[in-house]
Amino acid sequence: MSHEVFSIDELARHLGRDRREIEKLALRGRIPGRKVGSAWQFHSTEITRWLEQEMRDYSSAELRHVEISQQSDDICPDLPVSSLLHPETVAVPLEARTKRSVLESLLEVAGGTWQIWSPSEILAAVQQREELMPTAYAGGVAIPHPRNPLPDAHGESIIAFGRTMTGIPFGAPHGGLTDLFFLVLCQDSKSHLQVLARLGRMLQLPEFVVRLRETEDPLSAYEIICDTESQIAAVDSV
Questions:
Q1: What are the DSSP calls for 5-17, one per residue?
Q2: At 156, phi and psi to the nearest 5?
Q3: Averaged pLDDT of the chain
Q4: Are 9 and 118 part of one and the same domain?
Q5: What is the DSSP letter of 154?
């Protein structure tokens, strides 16, 4: 069931966490919420944005917990990234030299699925998200995405990947450059968070980023991404 506003009990169930923990976070101002009378209320959009930022510092085990709590019926639970990525949505090299051209090129690549219905709307939404808070991580990776799902602007949930031949300014911490880009377009917030959590776990494997930078063609990059996620899935199944 989709909620615009969560009560404290609903949010605890939504995040798979203890009610008392959520209440402590709210009282300390560590989670976005407000009291109406004696009851806490939490807006679902604010919670999604809060969790996105929190996940940047999560361990693999904590990200796994997010995957479980946010599991969506619309994507493969074992392979949430590989199931949304396709050989035709991988571009190596990605011909782009600026932040805007990266986003435009990734959208063009994603359009190879014929599921992009309103590229201008998606581009504007992704740019707005970048202006609010850049999606670049330390280490040269960025995961651009809209602030909110855009179910009328594209069909199925899609991931597009691209690697530029040189790093470009993309808002990374300490002015670092970025050359690896995952465009994430999901139909709902739970799928979105599940994908971000899985990508976060993959990026914590040091050989993953190294291998992506060494590859010289899109099919090899696609296989590296799928193989890495399969390794994580195998560990989870034990």
A1: EE-HHHHHHHHT-
A2: -65, 160
A3: 94
A4: no
A5: B
Can you read off the two tokens belonging to residue 235? Answer: 């560990």
Is the separation of the CB atoms in 110 and 116 below 8 Å? yes
Span 151-160, pLDDT tens digits: 999 999 999 9
**Sequence-separated contacts (24+) of 115-124 with Cβ below 8 Å:** 115/154, 115/155, 115/156, 115/158, 116/153, 116/154, 116/155, 116/158, 117/152, 117/153, 117/154, 117/155, 118/150, 118/152, 118/153, 118/154, 121/150, 121/153, 122/146, 122/150, 122/153, 122/154, 122/185
Q: Token digits for 125?
A: 């939404």
Q: Exposed, middle or buried: residue 55 (CB in 10 Å: 0-12, 13-18, 19+)?
A: middle
The model carries a pTM of: 0.93
- Which residue in this structure is represented by tokens 């959520």? 22
CA–CA separation, 204 vs 232, rounded Å?
Answer: 11
Q: What is the pLDDT of residues 84-142, one digit of tens each?
A: 999 999 999 999 999 999 999 999 999 999 999 999 999 999 999 999 999 999 899 99
Residue 22 lies in a domain: yes
**In-domain check, residue 208:** yes
End-to-end CA distance of the chain: 30
Give the range of the structural domain holding residue 207, as residue numbers without chain letter: 87-237
